[in-house]
Specification:
This protein is mostly beta strands. It has one helix and 13 strands. The strands form four sheets. Strands 2, 3, 5, 6 and 7 form a five-stranded antiparallel beta sheet that branches.
Length: about 230
């Protein structure tokens, strides 16, 4: 085989969504995936992919891993947008690759369903179940949801919350405590914004604000000219 036709090893990501997630139909849709290498002083873009469709089931995504004998940490960001509205919570996923080919599953979080990773799977008696809270970062007493994970294993699952209760611009955080000894339990993700705004909408809002700010300045200048 010619060396010119040899493809570099790749990383395959399996993007998983909740079983009850259904992508909206019609309108303008787009799926974006950004992959960056973090080992250097500044992130290096490996792949920036866009596709004019949405997914409502598990789907696979590949990107090249042209490195050997070195571990590489990648940052992956996924977003699905329908009619300029994000459908996924804005989260960064991290993938460490020591050897390719490499396969890994990433659980995406639609608005209203946050994928929670509590701890490694272990047998947990009912009296030692874990209580998980989703609350405001600055005001822990303001909760969106509280659940008791009283199954045989307290591990990873989708935590449902009411998107209408989310305050735009506020950051939220997860906390978990085992019920018997009231010890904190590691839980992820960390601080998150549950009401993301599409980048295009952010840019439009900024431009609209600047345009609005210019108006009183022009009025003030015109008034000064008229006084003369």
């Amino acid at each position: 085989m010619s060396l010119l036709n040899r493809q570099p090893p790749s990383v395959t990501l399996n993007f998983s969504l909740p079983a009850d997630f259904v992508a909206p139909q019609g309108g303008i849709s787009e799926t974006r995936v950004s992959v960056k290498r973090l080992n250097s002083a500044a992130p290096v873009t490996i792949k920036d992919w866009r596709h004019a469709s949405l997914y409502d089931a598990g789907w696979k995504f590949d990107f090249p891993h042209p490195y050997s004998d070195v571990g590489v940490k990648y940052q992956v960001n996924v977003q699905m947008i329908h009619n300029r509205q994000p459908l996924l919570i804005e989260l960064d996923y991290f993938v460490t690759v020591n050897k390719a080919p490499h396969r890994q599953t990433l659980h995406l979080s639609p608005i209203g369903q946050l994928y929670v990773e509590v701890q490694e799977p272990t047998t947990v008696p009912a009296e030692e179940a874990v209580t998980i809270r989703l609350h405001q970062l600055e005001q822990p007493q303001v909760e969106l949801v509280r659940v008791n994970h009283d199954e045989q294993t307290a591990t990873s699952f989708y935590l449902k919350y009411d998107p209408e209760s989310v305050i735009p611009g506020k950051r939220y955080v997860l906390s978990a405590v085992e019920n018997r000894y009231h010890q904190a339990v590691p839980v992820s993700p960390g601080s998150i914004e549950l009401s993301p705004v599409a980048r295009e909408q952010q840019a439009w809002s900024f431009q609209a604000l600047m345009h609005w700010l210019e108006k009183p300045l022009r009025l003030f200048t015109d008034a000064d000219a008229k006084i003369r």
